[in-house]
Design brief:
Blueprint: H1 9-15, H2 26-34, H3 44-47, E1 52-56, H4 61-74, E2 77-81, E3 83-84, H5 98-115, E4 120-122, E5 125-126, H6 134-147, E6 151-155, H7 159-168, H8 175-181, E7 189-193, H9 199-208, E8 211-214, H10 216-221, H11 229-234, E9 238-241, H12 253-270, H13 279-293, E10 311-314, H14 331-341, E11 347-352, E12 355-356
Parallel strand pairs: 1-2, 2-4, 3-5, 6-7, 7-8, 8-9
Antiparallel strand pairs: 10-11, 11-12
Helix pairs in contact: 2-4, 4-5, 5-6, 8-9, 12-13
């Protein structure tokens, strides 16, 4: 992990996901670590309570398929994307030519769909506008439409990035128009970050039904920007929370909740007219908001009758718990303590679609 002042923001965006994904040893690296799965069998995303994940994998097809297999084996619900890049002057080893990228993405999607995993599916993943030609983006959107599968990418995390996109695509009105013009903003699209999006661009998101994944740990860690979540919600844009590990340093959704609240408070300090988010609102973004962003809110996100039972069993009284519970604490008090202070030590059971996830470290 590199600090924000060691690697410029744009270089960090190019490098972060791919620095450990080379042709030399992609499969053994992925087998042991890409899902936070160590050689001792630990799965950190599940251990931290992430029942559904949306993964940027790597540019390598076979490695991406291994990630999908690992998620299926552990019982996690997941959308897995083989990352697509046909431009990368900063780290040229992390790219493919356009035809190879399209052919390998086709292979990835077909092979993953042929596995018929019940809860692990492909997602089309153009890395972002600075690393994709318009030819690639347009063809990828056609693939997503043909297979009726979702799309994920990255938008407007840093001001430097936005200026670079403007310089690269002078014929497009703004960053969002680059994606919209290439049919990548759909009701099944989720874009990470969005810190620098204008209200006009947020309206483009709303019109197309596209969603934003707010990744505050990454935004703060690489000093890229602060997303005004309240404004996004006022503009009626779907929004969930993400961890963006590579830019961020934690795979825990609890951390994403806390950093979201911190970001809201920082914005209030800068401008007292900002309405600070409550922990109840942010908890909703981490649960139902995330399911809406991924187009899965008919299946998961809350405990409505008929939905899958994705849930965590929380033990606030664990002997090693990082917080205390007192006799006069209300249920809301205990939930608030867990959200602000709890960690994986309090998560004693994880359920996905009604199935308890059997992991040694969860027992």
């Amino acid at each position: 992990m590199s600090s924000a002042n060691e690697i410029p923001t744009i270089k960090h965006v190019f490098k972060g996901t791919f620095v450990h994904s080379t042709w030399n040893s992609p499969m053994e690296i992925l087998e042991n670590y890409i899902l936070g799965v160590s050689s001792t069998g630990k799965s950190r995303t599940l251990k931290n309570g992430t029942t559904t994940a949306c993964y940027f994998a790597t540019i390598h097809t076979d490695s991406s398929l291994i990630l999908a297999d690992i998620a299926n084996r552990f019982g996690q619900r997941a959308l897995v994307g083989k990352v697509c890049m046909d431009k990368n002057e900063i780290y040229p080893e992390y790219k493919e030519d356009t035809s190879t990228c399209l052919a390998e993405t086709t292979r990835f999607v077909k092979e993953l769909l042929d596995k018929k995993y019940s809860r692990v599916k492909p997602i089309i993943t153009p890395r972002f506008a600075l690393s994709c030609t318009e030819e690639l983006m347009s063809e990828l959107s056609n693939m997503a439409a043909d297979w009726d599968i979702p799309i994920q990418s990255h938008i407007s995390e840093a001001k430097e990035e936005v200026l670079s996109v403007k310089a690269m695509y002078p014929h497009r009105e703004n960053y969002s128009k680059v994606y919209e013009s290439n049919k990548l903003l759909t009701r099944k699209t989720v874009m990470a970050h969005g810190c620098q999006l204008s209200n006009e661009e947020l309206d483009i998101f709303k019109m197309n039904g596209a969603a934003i994944s707010h990744c505050p740990n990454s935004n703060i860690s690489i000093c890229s920007g602060l997303l005004d979540v309240r404004n996004v919600l006022k503009r009626k844009v779907k929004l969930g929370l993400g961890t963006d590990v590579a830019g961020g340093y934690s795979s825990s959704m609890l951390d994403a909740i806390r950093r979201t609240m911190d970001t809201s408070k920082i914005l209030f300090i800068q401008d007292p007219r900002v309405e600070v988010l409550t922990f109840q609102e942010v908890f909703r973004l981490a649960t139902l908001g995330g399911s809406q962003a991924l187009g899965l809110d008919d299946i998961i996100g809350n405990f409505e009758v008929g939905k899958d039972f994705d849930a965590l069993l929380i033990s606030p009284g664990e002997s090693s718990s990082p917080f205390d519970v007192f006799d006069d604490d209300t249920k809301e008090d205990v939930i608030q303590k867990f959200i602000y202070l709890g960690d994986d030590r309090n998560i004693t059971e994880v359920y996905v679609a009604g199935n308890i996830i059997s992991l040694p470290e969860l027992s």
